[in-house]
């Protein structure tokens, strides 16, 4: 097999990263490196610094086969604003064009390009080109189909919506500019069937492949795996994630004011944390743990009765669900977005759509250990089959192969066909 050269362009990448998409890209490029392929990741430090308020993270480095190019300039915030408004890489365009020309890449994979280049970046390079839709940016100026910062979007009110977020409207979204630039891309990838269908519903004109996120397989599993001592003595349910309104904890906290049989542990932090803490004041069995180490988080997963995923927005996937399945604990997820398709495939828990359904699920997982064990084992088996590196990366490379065949890049298709 001839190793391929990939270039991944994205706004955020660890450690200059927010949310799960950057981590997902990092897992992908590291997985490709294990197979002998080389990846160059190009991302925008200016965008990170704009949102991180000058908090500079520690860089832990990358393994052989992964190179990171960090775009930064003296323009700072203005560089991001120009890209956001004009839909092209005004400040960093020359550098990106030089990298793509000099790198002799076989594959260029665009990810979250909102601030690294906008639609104008899609014309750069002559490799096989993929676009991976980690968000709904292609059809939504706010990226998340969360209208007016208060409700799921069921129909376009884009100008009013963007203003409610305090962002300037993008004039290029009201022209055919985006649609014209899409023709430079050979394959589009959605992270779930739900996200693919939402793109189509909101007018996205191209077909999309479906490829889920993945996680590393657990280092230890099975009956011989050791069990750590729990960090929390009482029975508990778990929430893990950024504390934002769209994550839905507002609906969960009141439940635990009356549900006294178990605690609710909340791992994570965010801009909505103080509001949630005020809402949870006086609820003795709710604990806000803030950010916790990976080691402690693994312990909280291991001993939880179930993970609660109450998001009220249209997410593109639900990586937190497969994190629970990997840890062999069941999930109680809201019946929204991609969660039903993940739960249908995994059989690893229950869905809820009302407070009564949530309480009933809490009681079943606490009082029926056989039900809990069945769901936990089913979710874990589904994780091993569908959501590991070994399961997903071959599907990714098959998408690349088919795109190369359509583009007439037979040497790339042959290299992947022989792998």
In terms of topology, how is this protein built?
Layout (H helix, E strand, L loop, with lengths): L4 E6 L9 H15 L3 E7 H8 L13 E6 L5 H10 L6 H11 L3 E4 L17 E6 L12 E2 L3 E2 L5 H7 L12 H6 L4 E4 L2 H9 L7 E2 L25 E5 L12 H6 L4 E5 L5 H7 L6 E5 L3 H10 L3 E3 L9 H8 L4 E4 L4 H8 L2 E4 L2 H13 L1 H18 L2 H19 L2 H8 L2
Parallel strand pairs: 1-2, 1-4, 2-3, 4-5, 5-8, 8-9, 10-11, 11-12, 13-14, 14-15
Antiparallel strand pairs: 6-7
Helix pairs in contact: 11-14, 15-16
Structure, described:
With 419 residues, the chain is an alpha/beta fold. It has two domains: 5-214 and 389-417, Glycogen Phosphorylase B (Rossmann fold, 3-Layer(aba) Sandwich); 236-386, 3-Layer(aba) Sandwich (Rossmann fold). The protein is 39% helix and 16% strand. It has 16 helices and 15 strands. It has helices at residues 20-34, 45-52, 77-86, 93-103, 158-164, 177-182, 193-201, 253-258, 273-279, 294-303, 319-326, 339-346, 355-367, 369-386, 389-407, 410-417, and strands at 5-10, 38-44, 66-71, 107-110, 128-133, 146-147, 151-152, 187-190, 209-210, 236-240, 263-267, 286-290, 307-309, 331-334, 349-352. It has a seven-stranded parallel beta sheet, sandwiched between helices. A three-stranded parallel beta sheet has the order 10-11-12. Strands 13-14-15 form a three-stranded parallel beta sheet, sandwiched between helices. Strand 2, helix 2 (45-52) and strand 3 (66-71) form a beta-alpha-beta unit. Helix 11 (319-326) packs across helix 14. The radius of gyration is 22 Å and the shape is globular.
């Amino acid at each position: 097999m001839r190793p391929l050269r990939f270039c991944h362009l994205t706004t955020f990448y660890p450690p200059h990263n927010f949310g799960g998409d950057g981590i997902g890209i990092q897992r992908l490029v590291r997985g490709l490196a294990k197979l002998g392929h080389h990846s160059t990741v190009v991302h925008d430090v200016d965008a990170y610094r704009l949102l991180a308020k000058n908090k500079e993270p520690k860089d832990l480095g990358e393994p052989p086969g992964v190179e990171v190019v960090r775009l930064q300039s003296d323009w700072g915030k203005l560089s991001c604003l120009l890209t956001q408004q004009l839909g092209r890489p005004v400040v960093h365009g020359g550098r990106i064009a030089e990298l793509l020309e000099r790198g002799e890449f076989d594959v260029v994979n665009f990810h979250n390009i909102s601030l690294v280049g906008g639609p104008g970046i899609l014309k750069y390079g002559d490799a096989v080109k993929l676009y991976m839709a980690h968000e709904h940016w292609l059809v939504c100026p706010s990226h998340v189909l969360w209208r007016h910062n208060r409700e799921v979007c069921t129909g376009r009110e884009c100008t009013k919506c963007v203003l409610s977020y305090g962002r300037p409207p993008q004039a290029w979204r009201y022209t055919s500019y985006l649609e014209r630039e899409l023709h430079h891309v050979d394959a589009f990838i959605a992270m779930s069937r739900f996200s693919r269908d939402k793109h189509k519903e909101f007018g996205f004109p191209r077909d999309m492949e479906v490829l889920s996120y993945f996680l590393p397989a657990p280092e230890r599993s099975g009956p011989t795996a050791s069990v750590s001592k729990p960090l929390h003595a009482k029975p508990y349910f778990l929430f893990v994630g950024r504390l934002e309104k769209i994550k839905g904890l507002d609906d969960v906290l009141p439940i635990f004011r009356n549900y006294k049989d178990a605690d609710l542990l909340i791992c994570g932090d965010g801009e909505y944390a103080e509001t949630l803490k005020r809402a949870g004041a006086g609820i003795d069995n709710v604990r806000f743990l803030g950010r916790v180490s990976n080691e402690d988080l693994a312990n909280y997963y291991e001993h939880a009765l179930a993970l609660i995923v109450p998001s009220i927005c249209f997410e593109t996937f639900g990586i937190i669900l497969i994190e629970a399945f990997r840890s062999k604990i069941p999930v109680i997820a809201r019946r929204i977005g991609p969660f039903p398709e993940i739960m249908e495939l995994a059989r690893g828990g229950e869905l809820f759509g009302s407070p009564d359904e949530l309480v009933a699920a809490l009681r079943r997982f606490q009082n029926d250990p056989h039900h809990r064990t069945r769901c936990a084992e089913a979710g874990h088996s589904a994780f091993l089959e569908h959501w590991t590196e070994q399961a997903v990366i071959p599907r990714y490379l098959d998408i690349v192969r088919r795109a190369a065949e359509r583009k007439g890049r037979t040497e790339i298709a042959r290299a992947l066909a022989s792998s």
